[in-house]
Amino acid sequence: MSIEAPARVDASEDNLYGYQSFKLGEFTFSRDEYFVYVEWPTGRHVMSADAFLRALQRDVAWQFFYGTVNFDGVIGTVNHYGTVDLFAGRYNDAYRKAELDHLENFETPLIKATFEQMLDNWTNTGFDPFASPTETGTAFGIKAGDNRPAITRHRVTARRMVNVPGDEPLRNDDNGHPVNRQFADVPQGEPELHPEPGFEGEVIAFNLFAYLSRSQVTWNPSVVSVCGDSLYCPTTEEYILPIIHGNDRVEWFVQLSDEIYWNVEDRDTGAARAKVVMRPGDVAAMPADIRHQGYAPKRSMLLVWENADPELPGLISSGQLPSTAVQL
Question: How far apart are CA 293 and CA 37, in angstroms?
Answer without folding.
Answer: 23
